[in-house]
Design goal:
This protein is mainly α and about 260 residues long. It has helices spanning about 25-30, 35-45, 50-65, 70-80, 85-95, 105-115, 125-135, 150-165, 170-190, 195-205, 210-235; strands spanning about 15, 20, 25. Among the domains are: about 20-50, no CATH class; about 105-210, Cytochrome P450-Terp, domain 2 (Cytochrome p450-Terp, domain 2, Orthogonal Bundle).
Length: about 260
């Protein structure tokens, strides 16, 4: 019989009875010595963030935890609970709602920033090329609810600026995000401020996370709000709550 030990290959964890090593470090040495956000970084990347990097990373995670029951993911979690699902099923159902339109803008914004970075000194042309390829909506800018400004974005950008001063990152993607914001304002004739997705994308790009990880990290962040809402709904009770109140009816359009 052939050796099956290589069925899975990983650099993340090694263990045997009485021993668990994460990325080569005993779990007991990590417990109580690293924060949860630092552990996320460590598990995903295999190294440790500096103190300044950890502060910036945690800020991005905190900023995106919730955006209310009107968000499809949160509404899904609450509805799942009223259907009798336990918390794990409610969380899984909600996370599965985080697709390209609801939850994917952060990943798309990181991709946009990298695209612009590949065209140094050609911002206008880069944006034109992006729009021709991807569509007229630029991910990470403007907000249909928060007008004129998403309150989360300026705070995150202030922290990104401080992180550059603290040498946690070099500011390249921060400057790209700001340049896109200014160019959009010029084209539209009015401000089109960066939103939460654009600001967290600046941070994740500055810290060296690949675009797909921006969505994965958003899922981790939003799961906090999902859990809170699912638990709250569980305490409130209610059965089979749909997306609209019982007295509301849809518009029927016969063929």
């Amino acid at each position: 019989m052939s050796d099956v030990s290589d069925w899975w290959t990983t650099s993340i964890i090694d263990m045997e009875p009485g021993r668990i090593d994460m990325r080569g470090e005993p779990i007991q040495d990590l417990i109580g010595n690293v924060s949860f956000s630092e552990m996320i970084w460590f598990m995903v990347r295999g190294d440790r963030p500096s103190d300044a990097q950890a502060r910036l990373f945690e800020a991005a995670l905190v900023a995106a935890v919730d955006h209310g029951p009107q968000a499809p993911s949160i509404a899904t979690a609450r509805m799942a609970v009223t259907c009798g699902s336990p918390l794990n099923n409610a969380i899984a159902s909600a996370v599965n709602m985080l697709g390209d339109i609801h939850g994917g803008a952060g990943e798309q914004a990181v991709t946009l920033y990298h695209f612009v970075a590949e065209h140094p000194g050609r911002l206008e042309q880069a944006l034109d090329d992006w729009i021709e390829s991807e569509g007229t909506i630029l991910p990470g800018f403007g907000h249909r609810f928060h007008t004129p400004t998403d309150p989360r974005a300026p705070r995150l950008m202030t922290m990104a600026s401080q992180a550059v001063k603290d040498q946690a990152c070099d500011g390249r993607f921060m400057r790209i995000g700001q340049a896109i914001e200014a160019e959009l304002a010029r084209r539209k004739g009015k401000p089109v401020p960066m939103n939460i997705d654009g600001a967290t994308a600046v941070i994740y790009a500055e810290l060296g996370f690949a675009p797909p990880l921006a969505r994965g990290l958003f899922c981790l962040s939003r799961s906090v709000g999902i859990l809170a809402h699912a638990w709250e709904q569980m305490q409130q009770g209610g059965r089979n709550k749909g997306p609209t109140p019982p007295t509301y009816r849809w518009t029927y359009k016969p063929k």
